[in-house]
Predict the structure.
Amino acid sequence: GAVVSQHPSRVICKSGTSVKIECRSLDFQATTMFWYRQFPKKSLMLMATSNEGSKATYEQGVEKDKFLINHASLTLSTLTVTSAHPEDSSFYICSARGHSRGTSYTQYFGPGTRLTVL
Amino acid sequence: ELKVEQNPLFLSMQEGKNYTIYCNYSTTSDRLYWYRQDPGKSLESLFVLLSNGAVKQEGRLMASLDTKARLSTLHITAAVHDLSATYFCAVDMGYALNFGKGTSLLVTP
């Protein structure tokens, strides 16, 4: 089955630094990738939709200057948390929607990145 | 705005018992997904339901979709401890998914 990877899986950083998280579709091309955020014992909240070759679409309330998204190729999207603060600590999960007929209806989720900002 | 409501949010059940988790949503959608999440882990896809009347089964879990009623169910048969996890339903908004709040399931001896 389709696999989505994320790197790093866990990151601890100091307040004020920037952190980049990579999301890769390993065996399929993903025209669209999504970034979700999950607080402990809560549901997933969509942050933004990332389309290859175009600007990301952010959900209401998500600061686009704080959460920079780049989707440079059909297999890679990156989320950069700029000037991170403790309230940005969360579990960030990406997903990818397939491009081919067999994968287009399914979203495949990455393993997640746990960000802790001290 | 699409709303997805799951119930119950918490479920403690004995091994061997049956139970159903419900997922109601507020606007038209023909695609609904069920995921499982273990603590500290990401989401594992359980079922993709693509049309009205769709029913899928895998082991002790069976999912169904009624698009007219805007309702999906996840039925657990003869629960075992390994099924303890959080289960999410998610409705396809046409681009991303809108998730329910999740049902935290604990199966006890």
Chain A touches chain B through 20 residues (CB under 8 Å). The mean pLDDT of chain A is 90. The longest strand of chain A covers residues 44-51. The CA atoms of residues 90 and 115 of chain A lie 5 Å apart.
